[in-house]
Amino acid sequence: MTAKQTIESGKAILGIEFGSTRIKAVLIDEENKPIAQGSHTWENQLVDGLWTYSTEAIWYGLQDCYAQLRKNVLEQYKSRPLLPLELVP
Fold this sequence. Notes:
Elements: H1 3-8, E1 13-18, E2 22-28, E3 34-41, E4 45-47, E5 50-52, H2 55-77
């Protein structure tokens, strides 16, 4: 199965990592090979002596990261099977 077929059949697996400097999203195929990716750069803030991220930064970063992943899928595979983040249950 090609990467495009994997995506369009809904068999691609989405992984998301909230790292200290970037949020990263990757789609992998059934053999664990990366087929698309997206990311968002962010910075933590020192609040009350703790390094943290605001809820707004988390949601914005996740949405931007996922949007970059969708853009990558469209550019590489000319495919739009991925749902907008607000529609993902």
